[in-house]
Amino acid sequence: MGELLKLIGNTPSVRLKRLVELYGVDGELFLKLECFNPTGSLKDRVALWVVRRSLEEGLLKEGMSLLEATTGNTGISLAFVGALMGHRVVLVIPEEVGVNVKRTCELFGAQVIPSPGGNADMDVALRLARDILESEPGKFLFLDQYSHPSYVECSYRWLGPELCEQLGGEIDAFVDVYGSGSTFTGVARCLKERRPDAKAFLVEPAECPVVSKGMWGPHVVDGVSDGFIPDNLELDLVDGVVLVNTEEVIRVTRELAELEGIAAGPSSGANVAAALKLLKGGFARRVATIANDRYDRYFEHPLFGKARRGTSLGPKGPAPLESLKKLELLWRRERAPALVDEAL
Ligand SMILES: Cc1ncc(COP(=O)(O)O)c(C=O)c1O
User: Fold this and answer.
1) Residue 332 has what pLDDT?
2) Class for domain 3-39+160-307, per CATH?
3) Cα separation, 99 vs 124, whole angstroms
4) For residue 268, how far is its CA from the centre of ligand 1 (angstroms)?
5) Does residue 230 have its Cβ closer than 6 Å to ligand 1?
6) Which one of 145, 190, 260, 293 is separated from 183 by 20 to 30 angstroms, measured CA to CA?
């Protein structure tokens, strides 16, 4: 086993005092630095967990390749873990995703296959991955981050307990963006089991409010809110949704670096902006969230003043039918989730 795999996990949690002061809010904000994993993102944990699980279960046999559809971090982490564990990795990545991501995957020896569209077109990438899977039966193990239960198990058994223990179990609220939904689901479930009155809030880009409003649209929080509700996002755990807009995401991502020295990507800024909104609105006093990845994946992103190509921002239409069906139950339930939409 590669020595670097031992460096995955056990990431620090820090308190963001200066940002809390800047916004004049009451309470404490903790950030778990998953960007300190070896390739710089939260996905190193899941990649290692899922590959190990697949080996234990006999699903991944010698000579088989790993196949995944991804917009970035999962791909980089799988390429890294695959290289160290001796498995070839094939990744379907939408063609509008930044070149940094693709080159990094290739640097670890993975094969990148482009699919049409951008970050919000994961449905297209997933269809292509399934076609590749079916074209050569027995050759690939499709890891399927949006549905595979091992992704949730990893956050529930590894990341969640680590976070709860670091913060002495004293967290009122956990708030997080969702891509596959597995981090939110696993951590929220773990936290609520330990502290039943703790709340779990989802973060959504205001331009893509799928869970909160049933609408889809392109946005700048790369890697998350892919325009549908994945199976790994357990809606029953959602106590509320916090909306953050493009300007807030970019502003807070920059402030996180300038004031706290944490140079992270936009989904981390989205998480911190949402945590600040929860403190501001008095929804919690001790909030925890996650720094998902590093800044250096985003040199072509609006974070560095670059215009988004191929898309304009904002809701484009209703979410897919399957997602809308899941939502009907959520919004009709006795206590519908809170919507936190105050400007920061
Ligand atoms: C940058 C970034 N942040 C957050 C997430 C969310 O993680 P999850 O897939 O567990 O919902 C992802 C997922 O790929 C991501 O790439």
Assistant:
1) 79
2) alpha beta
3) 19
4) 10
5) no
6) 260
